C-alpha cells in the first residue's frame, strides 16, 4: 500500500487540487512539502499533532517535510476560524514560542541530515518593502475573489481588520519563497486553510508559470462537528507542564464511543487492518479500543514510560479507586487554610477542577463531587486539615480523580 493510499484509507485527506498528479508525486517521486505553524502559544496542541502525524507518514515514505514557523505571519494573525481579531503578540514572545515548537516537533520529525527543515517566514516577511510587496505580489490578488474565501466571509459580519486581510497574501508569498528556494511543490494544511493554499498555488502559477499543488487533511472533530482537544482547563496541550500525561491520557480514554475508531485511524500508526478489525466492537471491547488509543497517543507525545504510568493509574482508579502516585495532584500550603479549614468551593477552584466558585457551587448542588468517598451536597462544607494527612481524593463526576496533599 502506498502512502497516498494509506492517507486516503485512514480518512486523513479532505481536499486536493490535482489528485492524479499528487498521487503520482507521492508514489513515484521524492517531493518536498510544507506545513505552516503560527507561533501563537508556547506549546503545540492536539490540532497541531494531527498535522505532525501526516508529516511523519510522508517522511517515512521518503518525502522531505518543511516546518514553516510563522514568526512573520503570527505578527498579523490568521483570521481563519475566528470571530474576532487574534491577540497581537510581541516579536520576542513569538520567537520564544517558535523555539518551543521546534523542541516539541523534534520528538516526532527527524531533522537530521536535512531529512526535514525548520524555516522561519520572518526571515523574508520582516524585511519586505511594502510598496514592492504590493507591486510584486498584491497585483495578482483579486479583492472580489478574496471576499468569497470562507475565512474572510465568516469574519465580515463581525468585522475584519485590514491587518488580517493581508494574511492570505503573506501565506501565499511563503509558498512562492519555498518553491523558489527549496523546490517545495506541495503545501499541506488543515481543511480550514484551503483558500490560503489555493492563493499560494495561484501566485506560483502567475509569477513562475509553473504548477504547484495543495492538499488538506480533515480537522479533528467530534461526531457533532465540534473541534476536539478542548478540556475543562483549555486546549489539550502537548507540553506536560500545561497538560499532564495523565490528563492527556484520560482525554482520549473518555472520548465518545463513536469517535474512537476514527481517532485510531487519524492519530496512531497502528496497522490500518488492525484498526478496521475493531470497527464493530461494542461495550467492553470499545473501552479496550479507547484504552489502546489513549496509550498510543500518549506514548507518541510523552513517551512510553509516561504512557505506562498513566495506564496504570487509570486502571487503579477505575477498578479499585485506590491512590496512585501518578494521579494528578495539587499541593496546598498552610496559607490555603483558615482556622485549619478550607472551603469546598475554594478547594475545587484551587485544584483547577472548576474555573470559579459559581461553577463549583453548581457542581456540588448537582451531586457531582465526592471527597474521600463521601458525596458533598452542601456548598458551604469546610474540610479540616486533618483530612489531608494521607492525601485527600476528590472525585468529580464519574471519571475525574484528583489528589490533594499538604
Q: Sketch the major β-sheet.
A: 6 strands, mixed
Number of H/I helices: 18
Low-pLDDT regions: none
Strand order of the largest sheet: 1-6-5-2-3-4
Supply the helix-strand structural class. alpha/beta
Question: Summarize this, please?
Answer:
The chain is an alpha/beta fold and 406 residues long.
Task: Describe this protein with a few key phrases.
globular; 6-stranded mixed sheet; alpha/beta
Walkthrough of the structure:
- The chain is α/β, with parallel strands linked by helices and 406 residues long.
- Helix content is 44%, strand content 15%.
- The protein has helices spanning 3-9, 19-28, 46-60, 91-105, 122-125, 130-136, 143-146, 150-156, 162-165, 167-182, 194-208, 245-253, 260-267, 272-276, 284-302, 304-320, 344-350, 357-365; strands at residues 13-16, 32-37, 64-69, 117-120, 184-190, 213-217, 230-231, 234-235, 329-331, 341-343, 369-371, 374-375, 382-384, 392-396, 400-405.
- The strands form 4 sheets. A 6-stranded mixed sheet has the order 1-6-5-2-3-4, with helices on both faces. It has a 5-stranded mixed sheet with strand order 9-15-14-11-12, with no helix packed on it. The protein has a two-stranded antiparallel sheet with strand order 7-8.
- Helix 3 (46-60) links the parallel strand 2 and strand 3.
- Helix 12 runs antiparallel to helix 15 (284-302) and helix 12 (245-253) packs across helix 16.
- It is globular and about 75 Å long.
- The model has no long low-confidence stretch (mean pLDDT 87).
Amino acid at each position: 500500500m502506498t502512502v497516498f493510499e494509506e492517507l486516503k484509507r485512514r480518512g486523513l485527506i479532505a481536499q486536493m487540487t490535482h489528485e492524479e498528479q499528487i498521487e503520482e508525486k507521492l508514489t513515484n517521486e521524492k517531493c518536498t512539502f510544507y506545513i505552516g505553524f503560527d507561533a501563537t502559544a508556547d506549546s503545540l496542541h492536539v490540532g497541531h499533532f494531527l498535522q505532525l502525524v501526516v508529516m511523519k507518514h510522508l517522511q517515512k515514505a521518503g518525502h522531505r517535510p518543511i516546518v514553516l514557523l510563522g514568526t512573520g505571519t503570527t505578527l498579523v494573525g490568521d483570521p481563519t476560524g475566528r470571530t474576532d481579531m487574534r491577540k497581537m503578540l510581541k516579536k520576542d514572545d513569538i520567537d520564544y514560542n517558535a523555539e518551543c515548537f521546534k523542541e516539541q516537533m523534534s520528538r516526532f520529525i527527524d531533522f537530521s541530515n536535512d531529512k526535514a527543515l525548520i524555516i522561519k517566514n520572518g526571515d523574508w516577511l520582516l524585511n519586505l518593502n511594502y510598496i514592492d510587496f504590493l507591486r510584486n505580489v498584491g497585483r495578482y490578488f483579486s479583492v472580489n475573489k478574496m471576499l468569497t474565501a470562507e475565512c474572510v466571509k465568516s469574519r465580515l459580519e463581525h468585522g475584519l481588520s485590514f491587518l488580517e486581510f493581508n494574511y492570505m497574501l503573506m501565506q501565499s508569498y511563503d509558498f512562492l519563497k519555498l518553491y523558489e528556494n527549496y523546490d517545495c511543490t506541495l503545501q499541506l494544511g488543515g481543511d480550514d486553510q484551503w483558500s490560503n493554499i489555493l492563493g499560494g498555488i495561484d501566485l506560483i502559477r502567475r509569477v513562475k508559470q509553473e504548477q504547484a499543488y495543495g492538499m488538506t487533511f480533515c480537522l479533528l472533530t467530534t461526531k457533532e462537528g465540534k473541534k476536539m482537544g478542548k478540556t475543562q482547563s483549555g486546549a489539550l496541550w502537548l507540553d506536560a507542564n500545561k497538560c499532564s500525561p495523565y490528563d492527556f491520557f484520560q482525554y482520549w480514554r473518555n472520548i465518545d464511543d463513536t469517535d474512537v475508531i476514527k481517532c485510531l485511524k487519524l492519530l496512531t500508526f497502528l496497522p490500518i487492518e488492525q484498526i478496521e478489525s475493531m470497527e464493530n466492537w461494542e461495550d467492553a471491547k470499545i473501552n479496550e479500543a479507547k484504552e489502546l488509543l489513549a496509550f498510543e497517543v500518549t506514548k507518541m507525545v510523552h513517551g512510553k514510560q509516561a504512557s505506562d504510568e498513566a495506564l496504570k493509574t487509570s486502571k487503579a482508579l477505575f477498578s479499585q479507586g485506590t491512590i496512585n502516585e501518578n494521579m494528578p495532584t495539587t499541593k496546598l500550603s498552610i496559607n490555603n487554610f483558615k482556622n485549619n479549614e478550607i472551603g469546598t468551593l475554594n478547594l475545587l477552584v484551587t485544584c483547577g477542577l472548576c474555573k470559579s466558585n459559581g461553577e463549583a457551587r453548581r457542581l456540588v448542588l448537582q451531586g457531582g463531587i465526592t471527597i474521600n468517598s463521601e458525596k458533598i451536597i452542601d456548598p458551604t462544607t469546610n474540610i479540616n486539615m486533618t483530612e489531608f494527612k494521607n492525601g485527600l481524593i476528590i472525585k468529580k463526576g464519574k471519571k475525574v480523580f484528583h489528589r490533594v496533599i499538604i
